Every structure is written in structure tokens, then in C-alpha cells.
């Protein structure tokens, strides 16, 4: 078993506003091993994204703690890469300039890193588009560019916050497959937050099911498929898939 | 795929027809525009010539041309135009730079922004022209007072317009750079400012118009030169030729300055893309 890279302990988060207090997260604990792909699944607005923001260091929890590689999280860290719902490529920057944004902000845009970025662009088929502007690219290519922007700063963990959910359904399945391959190829640890049960099963080694607000851990499932080569698309067609789906669906306890 | 001239050297009949139609429409629009102008001036000239309208009150194109010639010969024409344009450009530039600067400050500090909000609301709704006499007494009659008048009219609008642009930047875009550990300054230079070039240019466009209002009002109140002065003076001595001439010059000057901003916009947007290629 690989080492534990992320350790979330008794996490709690209460938001304060003049109208009152909202408890978003209560006593959430889990760990993520190096190289693992873990999903947090929960109903919309349950506080999943809050957990990611805390792991990334953008938010300070009101209770509990997060450790990454044994170090306490006290602010944004170079070990963490964050993927948002939309690609958020900047219209006024070329693809290359978008991709080096993180390096630029961190002040680490040196020759070695430039070459690293160019090699990423080459590997993932965006090299010929590096001087184009985002509006000249398809939705799938934009997502790739956004992922490369995150990979450019060489994080150990990728946090995917409802990533791809702004895409239409068919595009989303294709992009999910694409991004999954890249993450596996780069051997990154990933935590995906989603309300899409199928997506979480098809991508993850483990699924953590969260209750509605305040989010608590309802169950943790190991997801195993008897497949030669695991890809999100192949998983969706595998015979184990419906079993996992039904189990998680029941645990989410959705009422209309 | 669209067919464009580059990709398809052989154009379909429909395409040729379409291109012909839009070209025709373009020329027709231009022709009618010019026609309207010609008709107005011709009717004005003829009606005044036939004494159907009183040229003493309405003036007359031929008289305007004569007035223009007189002003030119006396050497006053360009002095008046120059004074007004200089005041307007000064008010416009100071208003834009100062307004954008203050907007940056308000964006930077939530606290200052909150504190100043009611003041901005009151100043924005106050008719700034009412402040004219105060400026004249404080600063003294002259171009400075006029520039301050122009500034008073354009400044608050600029602040609000630009600040609004700053605040409407997608918070997710800000979150994105924050995940890379961006400082407040980096959030501003990497996201907020570049996302708002068009908002700032829009503020410029509004400012051009407002600066003209400020300058002319200022010249009405106090001045010894400028187009506003000519208009007021012409009105006082009942010389409608002078008034009409000045108004026409004003219209041309204002239009030219607006076009200047449009030109600047094209230049800036192009620069931004060039900056993109570095």
C-alpha cells in the first residue's frame, strides 16, 4: 500500500454571515494515498467544494486539520493544483501564456520550466495551438489547456472541483476520458468533487459519499473493476458498474 | 464552414448576390446620410434667403461661412478652438487617470470603498454645474477653473464605471490565480486590469462627452476665450451667426475627439493581442 499523501482529520467549517451561521462541513475525516484517485460525492450544495477549498489552503477550517505529505496546510501550497468548473482560460492571453500563468504568478518561469511546459503541450497535442487564443479552440482542447496550466506548476495532488460540469454531456464524457488518461500518465494523485455518481465511479479508486449539509462522511467504497485497461468509458460499460451505482444512489438518499 | 474570399476563389452565385447586396446597402446608407445633411443646409439657406425664416434669428449657412472667414482673418478662430480643445483634453485625461486611480484604490480596500460609498452616491447625483461658482472663487477665473469643472463632471462617473468593471470580474477567475498563490497585486495585474480594458475604454468614451459638457459650461460661467465664450458672447450681442458657427465647430471638434478614442481603442486592443504574442 502506498503512503498516505493527504490526511483530513475531523474537518469542520462554519460560515458566518450577518443573517446567521451555516455549518457546511462537520467532522469529516479521510485519507488519500499517493497515486490514488478519490471522489467526493454528495448532493448539490452539501459542502463538497468547501472541503476542496480547505485542502487547497484557500479557506481556513473552523475545526480539524489537513496535512499534505505530513505538513500542515496553512495557505496555498505548491503541492496542490486546482481545477475549477470552467476552464477559465483568459481571453487576452494565448494558450501558451495561459498555460504558464501559474509559473508566472509563482515567479518560477525559468528556462527549464518553459521547456517543461512546451513538452507538455507537445505530448498532449496543443503545441501547434500555443500561439492561438482560447476562443479559437474547441471545448475539449480548452479543458486540456486548463489541465496543462495546472500540471505546469508540477503539483503532487490535483483537486478537481466539479471539473467538466460546465460541458455538455457528450463532450463531458469524452473530456473525462481524456483528462483521466493524462492524470494517470503523469501519475498524479487526484481528488474529484462531483454530484455525478456515474462520473465518480468511472474515474475513482475510492468514492467517499457525503451527506447533505452539513457534510459528513456517509460511506467510503473501494471501487474495483475487472478490466485490463481501466478507462472511465470502459468502466461505464463494466458489469460491476450498476451495482456500485445503486449502492451509492441509495446512500445519497435523494428526495425530490 | 463559411465560405470566405480566401478559401473559395470560385464564388457561388448566391454568394456574389449576397456580397453585391451588402455593398449596395453600404453605399446607399452613406448616400442618404449625405443627402440629409445637404437637404438641411440647402433648405436652411433657401428659406433664409427668401425671408421665410428670419436669418437674424436662425442665421444662414452662407453667413456662417462668412463668419468663419472673418474669425479666421482676425486670427481668432484657432485661438478659440485651441483653448477649448486644450481644456477638454486636459479635463478628459485628468478625469480618466484620476478616476481610474481612485477606482483601483476602492477596489483594493473594501473598507475605504464602504466608507466612501454614500459620498460617491451623493456626489454622483449632485448636479456638478452647481459647483461652478465655487470653483471660480476658489481657483480664480481662467482655464484652470474650467478644467476643474470638466473634471467635476467626469470624475465620479469614471470612478463608478471603472470600479463596477473591476468588481464584476468573475470570482472564479480570481480563485484560479489565488490557487497559484497570487498576491493582491498579482490578482489586480494578472486578472482584474486586463479583464477590464474594455470597461476603461468605455469610460473614456463617456468621458469625452462629459468633458465637453464641463468645459462649455465652465466657459459659459467664466472665460475670455474658447467656443463656449463665443457662444455666450454671440448670444449676449444677439449675433446668431457667431453662435451657430461656434456650435458647428463644436460639433466637428467633439466628433473628431470621439473618433480619436475609437482609434485609440483599436490600437489598444491590438496592442493587447501583440502583448499576447511576446
Describe this structure in words.
The complex is a heterodimer of chains A (256) and B (278). Helix content of chain A is 35%, strand content 26%. Chain A has helices at residues 48-56, 95-99, 101-106, 111-123, 139-152, 169-185, 197-203, 232-237, 241-252, and strands spanning 4-17, 20-33, 37-41, 63-68, 71-72, 80-83, 157-161, 189-194, 206-210, 217-222. In chain A, the strands form 2 sheets. In chain A, strands 6-7-8-3-9-10 form a 6-stranded mixed sheet, sandwiched between helices. The model of chain A has no long low-confidence stretch (mean pLDDT 86). Chain B is an all-alpha fold and 278 residues long. Chain B has helices at 13-49, 55-58, 61-73, 77-108, 110-125, 132-139, 143-167, 171-179, 184-192, 197-221, 227-236, 240-277. Residues 1-5 and 274-278 of chain B have low confidence and may be disordered. The A-B interface holds A 56, 58, 75-76, 78, 80-82, 84-86, 88, 90, 92-94, 97, 101-102, 104-106, 131, 133, 153 and B 170, 172-173, 175-182, 186, 190-191, 194-195, 197, 272-273, 276-277.
Give a quick precis of the structure.
Chain A has about 260 residues and is an alpha/beta fold. Chain A has helices at about 50-55, 95-100, 100-105, 110-125, 140-150, 170-185, 195-205, 230-235, 240-250, and strands at about 5-15, 20-35, 35-40, 65-70, 70, 80-85, 155-160, 190-195, 205-210, 215-220. The longest helix of chain B is centred in the last third of the chain and has 38 residues, at about 240-275.
Number of strands of chain B: 0
Following the backbone from N to C, one meets helices and strands of chain B in this order, namely HHHHHHHHHHHH
Helix % of chain B is: over 70%
- Main β-sheet, spatial strand arrangement of chain A: 6-7-8-3-9-10
Radius of gyration of chain B: 25 Å
Using only CA atoms, what is the Rg of chain A?
A: 18 Å
* Major beta sheet summary of chain A: 6 strands, mixed
The residue ranges of chain A in which pLDDT falls below 50 over 5 or more consecutive positions are: none
For the termini of chain A, the CA-CA separation is: 41 Å
Oligomer: heterodimer
Taken from the alpha-carbon principal axes, the silhouette of chain A is globular
Query: Considering DSSP H and I runs of 4 or more, what fraction of the residues of chain A is helical?
Result: 25-40%
- Provide the structure class of chain A: alpha/beta
Beta-strand percent range of chain A: 25-35%
